[in-house]
Amino acid sequence: MKSYTYFKNKIAGYEDVSETVKVIEKIAASSVHIIKKEVSTLNNFLAITKTVIERLSVCTEKTITHPLMSVRKDSSAVDVLLVISGGKGLVGGLWQRLAESYREMALPNQKVVLVGDKSIEYINVESENILRVFNFSNEIPSQAEVDSLYRYLEENFIKGNFRSVSVLYFKSASIGEQQPLCVPFLPFVPSVNYNDKEVTVSDTTLGWPIIESSVPDLLDNLFKSFIQARLYSFLLEARLSELSARTVSMEHAAQKTKEVVEQLQLQHARQRRHVSTQKQLESFTAQNMI
Predict the structure, then answer these.
(1) Domain map of the chain by residue range?
(2) C-alpha to C-alpha distances, 11 to 16, 44, 75, 106, 257, nearest whole angstrom
(3) How far apart are CA 285 and CA 171, in angstroms?
(4) 72 by DSSP, 3-state: which?
(5) Is the pLDDT reported for residue 105 higher than 80?
(6) What are the tens digits of pLDDT across the range 8-39?
(7) How crowded is the C-beta side of 272, counted as CA atoms within 13 Å?
(8) What is the pTM for the complete model shown?
């Protein structure tokens, strides 16, 4: 029969676990709100930049070309998949789902660039197919870290080493739902044909753009800002999904720990009643024998 000390230590241990889980949940939840604002701001920037590019192309009637829009036909170039994960666990099977998505979506002979320690741990890729691994130290990647990843992809694509670059990441539909997506990144294919002279600007109240620099220089800067921001949006969405999954996972863990503590308290109460009843019976029997 288990002693009072046994139950006391067990309950105290689970209560400590519960407090730790709640702290992790609160930290993750607060980070979710911060990154949601970052994602919203970034999406607004992407929408505005895209509109400026479209208006500029229509108003100036200039043919828009850019090295990052060029389709590569060199047989020596490779197709690359950028897989974005995180560096921590406690996400309720999110990284296992990422590995399953990789197996479903990866192309034959596709090379891989990994972001995050968990992609190395969970994704079964031959070492010769891994081109490079990037690890970011903070929850929100710094500008220097994003620049480093962007320059690596941009330089290899422009040099002709990469034929195409796709991105596999999780997008957070809600705090309880993360969707794996595999989207093309390079070459950049706009949703609007900027060189189509029949394209018109829908909102005519915005006026005509005032251009102080040359059109090629302006477009080059706009494209670089747009594509770099798009890469940053993938990283933020992946981090938001990780933190959302951790928040939900810790919430479930806290509930499960609470149930275990309640069960232990119930077992302890039953055992105390059993011991108390046994003592009363023994005392009653002893009195009758006198």
Answers:
(1) 28-247
(2) 9, 50, 64, 47, 10
(3) 70
(4) coil
(5) yes
(6) 788 888 778 888 888 888 878 888 888 999 99
(7) 11
(8) 0.79
Which CATH number applies to 28-247?
3.40.1380.10
* 86 contacts 243 by C-beta, under 8 angstroms: no
Residue type, 268: H
Separation of alpha carbons 240 and 84, rounded Å? 12
In angstroms, the CA 282 to CA 104 distance is: 68
Amino acid letter, residue 165: V
Is residue 185 scored above 60 in pLDDT? yes
Per residue in 123-176, pLDDT (tens digit) is 877 778 899 999 887 777 888 999 999 999 999 999 999 999 999 999 998 888
Other CB atoms within 10 A of residue 289 CB = 6
- Residue 280 tokens read as 């009363």
- Please, are residues 134 and 80 in contact by the beta-carbon 8 Å criterion? no
